[in-house]
TrEMBL record:
Alphabetical UniProt keywords: Bacterial flagellum biogenesis, Bacterial flagellum protein export, Cell membrane, Cell projection, Cilium, Flagellum, Membrane, Protein transport, Transmembrane, Transmembrane helix, Transport
Protein purpose: Required for formation of the rod structure of the flagellar apparatus. Together with FliI and FliH, may constitute the export apparatus of flagellin.
Transmembrane regions listed in the UniProt entry: 7-25, 31-49, 56-76, 107-125, 193-213, 225-252, 273-289
PROSITE patterns linked: FHIPEP
Name of protein: Flagellar biosynthesis protein FlhA
Bilayer topology annotation: Multi-pass membrane protein
Primary gene name: flhA
Family per similarity comment: Belongs to the FHIPEP (flagella/HR/invasion proteins export pore) family.
Localization in the cell: Cell membrane
Length: 707
């Protein structure tokens, strides 16, 4: 049993070796027939598979399979040529039957048919597939950075978890490898078509020479014998080659298909019934042209017009327009029975006045929600679960993932419609005040421009709200072409949710109130009661602990490891009372967490500070009422900001957040210096990075003073 399994595991290797032997060992006509039939069968199977897959990666072995089948056809060609020339034109029953069937006693007809098949394969299918594969490979590689950014955005907003992000990154890499391989594999098919013409000429000319010189046959006899064998051999080689070439074209032209070719073709033709009716009408008009076959035209025209009319009626019955007013939609969000006739406006006003006579009701008006999101009427379907909206489910996923990553539970997000906004607008508020605003088109997709844009797609120019990337709103029918051009295409809900999640992350430190700090400490008591009893409030108060956690969150440092944070506070508080200094010690203790968050693939790209600049910063530190503060000269400050502006552009091209690396003494002061100018820039110290990380400096900020 083990031997059989080993043979099956190495079956492909054995087949490739046998194909190579075909080039050397003579094969009997019986086995030639078997191999030719297998060749045709494999070509047909490959074509059917390519028509039924949803995406190219489902048939990822195709480039290697293309090489194997091409080598197999070459082996058969060599064997059949040897048999034709050495056996007086006999090369098995399949070749003879194919030659006789096509020729029908006329060699010229057979030659013409063979040349047509070869030229169609060579000039039409192969040429087109080769060009599409080349373009697909280039655009796939160009689109990789944008797709990686989209994955990072979905991961950051909680739409996907780490495992799904890894799977999507792996898929992007596989796509790039696949289309790169296809770009080269199409050249193999092109060479195979050229070789078939050469082999056919060799068979015919060699057969004529052997038949007339060695066999003593007349030219008519030679033409009759060897033309059948030559044309038959050419056809049995070109038919499977044509099938595989067609499969190649289908795979490289269906890069963004959502279903099998059969389902897509039927579905898209059925979606355009008016086109069928118009085409049928044009055929009906052609009946009036003298000499045209009236019965055939009339039959096809009637079928197309009737079919189009039937599909149109069916679409109208199944998907007629539904008119729903704003009140109806919001009532649907309220619950069952909400579509019934409500009270009049006067009755509502009287009930409201009666309600506010209770002073407790008035107090409800001054409550401030931690996070609110208001949106215009057109965006209600994205939120309304009764209409299929997925916004609430996606927010739940984001809250869970953010809690797992950062250690902070995001408070509930209040979603409400607003009559003060435009229909396509939304506003994000933190503690009652607007912090972000955006506008989306619900029936469009947002296409993010790739770094190296080679060809633009028509659309409405805009800026992606979360990351500020130049983008275009495109219609659904342009989505496929946009992805081919290298754009990263995002649906409207993902655009809005990504903006919400990035805004919440940016203001997370404002959401950490005293009540949440108490909850976090109570949760830690279940694991380490002695540590909490020792530290809080004996060593640090709840307010002081809140300040430390806020400092960490403000710079994007997770607070999940509360045990390490509190232990460091206890150790530091013996000699240090300044909370900023204690926070710096905590950051060093969390070096593994910081390294994991900012490191990619064992390396970290950063901007460093020149030694002279760090010395100047240290000498510029001044004692104040609230501790040390940095008092740099205006010239030095302006120079630093200008240099950082230039370095930030490099990070935008790399597709990562800008990082400045400093010494531990300088870090906190340099951060306070630049935070108002570059709020998205991270400042780390050397002590916060693990020793096994390779640091790559992409720039350096030096001390430049005009004298």
């Amino acid at each position: 049993m083990t031997n059989i399994k080993n043979i099956l595991n190495n079956a492909v290797s054995l087949i490739v070796v046998m194909i190579v032997l075909l080039l050397i060992i003579p094969i009997s006509p019986f086995f030639l027939d078997v191999m030719i039939i297998l060749n045709i069968s494999v070509g047909l199977i490959i074509l059917l598979i390519s028509m039924n897959i949803k995406e190219a990666l489902e048939f990822s072995i195709f480039p290697s399979l293309l090489l194997i089948t091409t080598l197999y056809r070459i082996g058969i060609n060599v064997s059949t040529t040897r048999s034709i020339l050495s056996n007086g034109g006999s090369a098995g029953s399949v070749i003879g039957a194919m030659g006789n069937f096509v020729l029908q006693g006329n060699a010229v007809v057979g030659v013409v048919i063979f040349l047509i098949i070869v030229l169609v394969q060579f000039l039409v299918i192969n040429k087109g597939a080769e060009r599409v594969a080349e373009v697909a490979a280039r655009f796939t590689l160009d689109a990789m950075p944008g797709k990686q950014m989209a994955i990072d955005a979905d991961l950051g907003s909680g739409l996907i978890d780490e495992q799904e992000a890894k799977a999507r990154r792996y898929k992007i890499q596989k796509e790039a490898d696949f289309y790169g391989a296809m770009d080269g594999a199409t050249k193999i098919v092109k060479g195979d078509a050229t070789l078939s013409l050469v082999t056919t000429a060799i068979n015919f000319l060699g057969g004529c020479i052997i038949g007339m010189v060695q066999g003593g046959m007349t030219f008519t006899e030679v033409l009759s014998v060897y033309s059948i064998a030559t044309i038959g051999d050419g056809l049995v080689g070109q038919i499977p080659a044509l099938l595989i070439s067609t499969a190649t074209g289908m795979i490289v032209t269906r890069a963004v298909a959502e279903d099998s070719l059969n389902i897509e073709v039927l579905g898209q033709f059925k979606a355009q019934p008016r086109a069928l009716m118009i085409a049928g009408g044009v055929l009906a008009i052609l009946i009036a042209v003298p000499g045209m076959p009236k019965f055939q035209l009339a039959l096809i025209a009637l079928v197309m017009m009737f079919g189009g009319y039937y599909l149109l009626r069916r679409m109208e019955e199944m998907g007629g327009p539904v008119m729903v007013g704003a009140a109806g939609v919001m009532a649907g969000m309220a619950g069952p029975g909400s579509m019934e006739q409500g009270p009049s406006l006067e009755e509502e006003m009287m009930a409201e006045e009666e309600n506010f006579k209770d002073i407790n009701t008035v107090y409800s008006l001054i409550n401030v929600e931690p996070i609110e999101m208001e949106f215009g009427y057109s965006l209600i379907p994205l939120v309304d679960e009764a209409s299929g909206g997925k916004m609430i489910d996606r927010i739940v996923i984001f809250r869970r993932q953010y809690a797992q990553e950062m250690g902070l539970v995001i408070p509930s997000i209040r979603l409400r419609d607003s009559s003060y906004l435009n229909t396509n607008q939304y506003v994000i508020k933190i503690k009652g005040e607007e912090v972000a605003k955006g506008e989306i088109l619900i029936d469009y997709y947002l296409a993010l421009e790739p770094p190296n844009l080679e060809k633009e797609i028509d659309g409405i120019d805009t800026i992606e709200p979360a990351y500020g990337i130049p983008s275009k709103w495109i219609t659904m029918d342009k989505r496929e072409m946009a992805e081919i051009y290298g754009y990263t295409v995002i649906d409207p809900l993902s655009v809005m949710l990504t903006h919400l999640s990035e805004t919440v992350k940016k203001h997370a430190y404002e959401l950490l109130n005293r009540q949440e700090v108490v909850r976090l400490i109570d949760n830690l008591k279940n694991q380490s009661p002695e540590l909490v009893e020792e530290a809080i409030p004996a060593v640090i108060s709840y307010g002081g602990f809140q300040k430390v956690l806020t400092n960490l969150l403000k710079e994007g440092i997770p607070i999940k490891d509360l045990e390490t944070i509190i232990e460091t506070i206890v150790d530091s508080a013996m000699t240090v009372k300044d909370l900023d200094t204690i926070t710096e010690n905590i950051r060093v203790a969390l070096k593994r967490t910081i390294t994991r968050k900012f490191c990619e693939g064992g390396s970290m790209k950063v901007v460093t500070l020149d030694a002279d600049l760090e010395k100047n910063i240290i000498t510029s530190l001044t004692n104040g009422d609230h501790g040390l503060y940095l008092a740099l000269s205006p010239d030095v400050m302006q120079s630093v900001i200008t240099q950082l502006s230039d370095e930030v552009k490099k990070f935008h091209e790399l597709g990562q957040a800008p990082i400045v690396l400093t010494s531990q003494v300088v870090r906190i002061h340099f951060y306070h210096l630049i935070e108002q100018f570059f709020p998205e820039m991270y400042v780390l110290s050397f002590n916060e990075i693990s020793n096994n990380i390779q640091i790559q400096a992409v720039g350096n900020i030096s001390l430049q003073i005009d004298r």
